Amino acid sequence: STHLGQTMSSPTEPVEKPVFLSLYEKQEKIYPRAVTGRFARWRWVMVWLTQMAYYGMPWLTWNGRQALLFNLDTRQFYIFGLVLQPQDFIYLAALLVLSALALFFFTALAGRLWCGYTCPQTVYTEMFLWVERRLEGDRSARMRLDAHPWGVNKIARKGGKQLIWLFIGLFTGFTFVGYFIPIQSLATQALALQVEP
């Protein structure tokens, strides 16, 4: 019999249930091992050098002002002793083009050096993996920790790792904004929780 256009199945007929088919394969978690040796040490040297330059550059002063500042509010770009106004944008564009060409030239000549030692993805991956190893242990310890049920130890280790990762991300973003807004006033505003738009 039918009811409102639907066919009623008799009690003897099996009812077909919809089948959910995922087109994505669940990927197993990757547990990278710690690497040691001469090249790993050089990678850490480059992590330190690049991050000291990135995090430290906005705090450098030059003639009583921030050494490297792209102040969009006043439309002035400070690059050490050089002050560029909007009408000087062609010079800034030329400087950026030369920097891009230098990067392309360097990667064409020695691409693995860029990718393996100074690429931001490599640098931040190395930093985040270091934090993970310090809080959760080496590869086998991380595998055991993930296999254990949730408890105080697991929550403390994984939560601590996430908090430190969050701090690194926030500090990295804060520093990036510090290239466009004077970082000392930005820090004062952030500490007072009164950041301007």
Structure description:
There is one protein chain. The chain has 197 residues and is mainly alpha-helical. Helix content is 56%, strand content 10%. It has a three-stranded antiparallel sheet with strand order 5-6-7, with helices on one face. α3 runs antiparallel to α5 (152-177).
What is the C-alpha radius of gyration, as a whole number of Å?
27 Å
Count all strands and give the number: 7
Q: Tell me, rounded to a whole number, the average pLDDT.
A: 86
Shape: elongated
- Please count the helical segments: 6
Note the topology.
Blueprint: E1 2-3, E2 6-7, H1 38-56, E3 61-62, E4 65-66, E5 68-71, E6 76-79, E7 82-84, H2 89-118, H3 120-136, H4 139-147, H5 152-177, H6 183-191
Antiparallel strand pairs: 1-2, 3-4, 5-6, 6-7
Features:
197 residues; mainly alpha; 3-stranded antiparallel sheet; two-stranded antiparallel sheet; 6 helices; elongated
Question: Quick recap of the structure?
Answer:
The chain is mainly α.
